[in-house]
Predict the 3D structure of the following.
Amino acid sequence: MAGDEFPLWEMIPPWGTLPIEQYLIKNWNHFSIDAPSQQRQRLIQRFLERDKTTEEFLFSDELPPRMPTSEEIGLILHPWRSDDVIRRKAYYLTKDSVLVFLRTHYDPEDDGKMNEWVYETDLFEENSWWACLNDPRLFNFGSDWQRVYEIMPEVAGFVDRTQRFAPSRGLHCLRASLKEEKRIKKPEESENRLRDINIAAYIVIADQEAFQSGLLRLLCLDDRQNIIGEVRVDRKPAEITELILQRDPILGL
């Protein structure tokens, strides 16, 4: 079942078709004395630490060979991610290499600024809505943004890296203006090292400092979820995406 055969808002992946779900049902210990939530969290961490070169859990839109039973769905999968919107977003995060935008600070007075970052561009509203994680019930982490992996381990990296989207024509206009951006300085040897590292994911975080200063936090992560570079930028996620696609040195990543 290919995702492009349905409108995005109608695509709900069958239980067990997401890589993390397949990993959970395959490795679940039904005789464990731990609470299901504890065992699930431990397995999610192992999933994140697994060898990313294996193709064991990298399957296409076809149904995987091992589908969960109703008992496994009720015990392992549904209590963890019962929200269809989250499962839709997880599905598309495994299919497309987009910039993830995570909001971790929630104050109603900041909603206007959030709308400027998100809705004054079509990056999230029409094209990559699944990459915007903006829900106080789920992502109100404060400074502990890594908790997002417990809910959306797909944020750690993209399963299908063949999907790319083309940069827009406005890229050259951003390069000149970004020269004055405030960013974290790195030693020269560190900058050279980044060029040789396989970057697994980019995450933009709207934390408390971002709302206070207007500077979003951009993180560059390797396949072990280590931060190998970060920068504060006064740009919308759509504009940041353009620079990342070009590996623009202006970002300092």
